[in-house]
Fold these 3 entries.
Entry 1:
Amino acid sequence: MVETILQTLKQDLNKRMQGTTDVLQRELAGLRTGRASVNFLEPVVVDAYGAQMPLTQVATISAPEPRLLTVQVWDRALAKAVEKAIQEAGLGLNPVTEGQVLRIPIPALTQERRQELTKVAHRYAEEARVAIRNVRRHGMEELKRAEKEHQLSEDEHRDYGKQVQTMTDTFIKKIDTMLEQKQKEIMQV
């Protein structure tokens, strides 16, 4: 009985912590570095067929070179709408249209802009750490509640508390590693 409750709690905490790191990974992927990444165009929404559609639903995005993105529009009639959507997305990108293909050169980042992006990456990482700690706090409260209700002994509470802390430390370390990699990527000239 106790084992199943604790196993369920552990799985729940692990799932929530993994979800937090997944969100951080998506946020960091969206940060623009000096290199081309198809993730830059993820927030772009195109006015197509009388509706707002994500760019990925009307075109194929690729990064053939480190400083170039290409967008292959599936319907030639949407090429102008896609170009307009990219320009108005506030990404600082200026596409060059060649029929159904848009070539988007990625401008180099200034040192000042790189430092700003590093600060943003740090903020994202700190938000993820706080979320992980909140999940840990929730887990510890559940253990305390189970002990109060005499479902756990004091020793079991302490042992499982250590396991929750170890899981937390592992995820915090993962966040730090992700941040470090992103910093290197941003600062790379």
Note: The first helix runs from residue 2 to 29.
Entry 2:
Amino acid sequence: MGWETLGLWGEDAVRIEPLTGGSSSDVWSLRVQGRRAVGRLGTRSDADLAWEAGLMQYLDRAGLSVPMPIPTRDGRLFADGLTVMTYMEGGPPRTAGEWRRVADVLRQVHRLTQDWPQRPGWRSSTELLHEETGTRIDLGAMPPGAAERCRAAWARLAGRPTCVVHGNPDNPGNIRMTAERVALIDWDESHRDVPDLDLVLPHNAAGLEGEAHDIAAQASAAWEAAVCWGDDYAIKRLAEVRAV
């Protein structure tokens, strides 16, 4: 099934224009039930999508601003790989102060999800010290020596507590800010991992210092290299990971 599945949200549900982001999905702005919305069509499993939908509902109940799943007419939160979500107003963070607000919200997410289960099919960075694959990551597909460099960076996180991480909060396009709130969007790469991966932000907004910042920066670069492997961005990120 493809975008024809959108009809499950009503006869008046229509696509408007494609949106940037969603590297593993086709993302569009929509008009659904008379309001603006966002649709994401991909190949994730039902278990994967149910995990994300449940997380959004949980964070919303906790008072955070996140895109909420809009159910189909028969009450499903997704159908045939398609998820329809509320549109979040706002713009990206631009100043150091605004990025500090983002860091505060990320820490709230981390605090609230210490007991949240792992996303189905995913593995954390420290689990990949002993595993080869996990959803979008295949360390065996990387060039000789690359996996060893990534694992050396992740080994410095071993033994630390884990929680849900957003997965890509340093991208300003994944933040929608207003004067009143900070909304985190595009949870396509969220999973359970060490929170440091979320805290390498512009202006060092999370306030990491010295070795703590180096550990987080190396682990984050290694993660993005592995999860995006095959494109120019991944090659650039791998170049930031020190050789073993």
Note: The radius of gyration is 18 Å.
Entry 3:
Amino acid sequence: MPELPEVEALGAFLRENAVGKVVTRVDVAAISVLKTFDPPVTALGGLTVTAVSRHGKFLDIDCDGVHLVVHLARAGWLRWSDSISPRPPKPGKGPLAMRVHLSDGSGFDLTEAGTRKKLAVYVVRDASEVPGIARLGVDPLSPEFTPDRLRALLTDAGRSRIKGVLRDQSVIAGIGNAYSDEVLHAARLSPFHPASTLADDDVSRLHEVIVGELSSALSRATGLAARDLKDSKRTSMRVHGRTGEACPVCQDTVREVSFSDSSFQYCPTCQTGGKVLADRRLSRLLK
């Protein structure tokens, strides 16, 4: 799933390559991707791309005051082409959901792999009209995200597991499954640690790690073409997606906890005092 660094990098790529160009046509290959109907998607035709911004994991493409807002979800992506195919796509064929044509012949496709279709596109007059944006929490790379702010958020979360709190977009906007794994590994915290029970030193370290991990990921992604962002993210992960491999810090084996529809990875030595966490589909934490 694209998270804050990748979405921010996609925004930077579009600011360089799309801003100033006119939207000539929008082809919808999967009608289910559209979550709004007023303004219609056809209203984008003839408008100029004037700005591109990010809200959490939402990409906001401003076209003369009409916003094309995209949430790429778990398996969505934006594929840029300097010479986009002028042929209208066949509805329901392959991963293509939407194609945006620009005035110089370039453009981009919004695609989604797999059968679980969660990619969402909104055409709105104000980005705050998108429900997911309206309820976003603090951006972790903003000045408002301070150690004191993080402490207050963790206190409000009570005994909720820290992994879930970091992923909750209404608490902190932009962190998903992958970077929460990386953050918790770097902060040497168990994914199941109750949020409100972290000591002050742990909160300070967690804040430093969140900002540092996301800033480093963004730095790696900056300047990359859209097609290269996925590989950059994948190769930079220390524990996420590394089940069975050696932890780069302590050489212990990276373990996985699976749920019904997701999983996360961690290092027992670095994060749980050597304890192995049980598969949550089957049992509770091994004692």
Note: The CA atoms of residues 77 and 256 lie 26 Å apart.
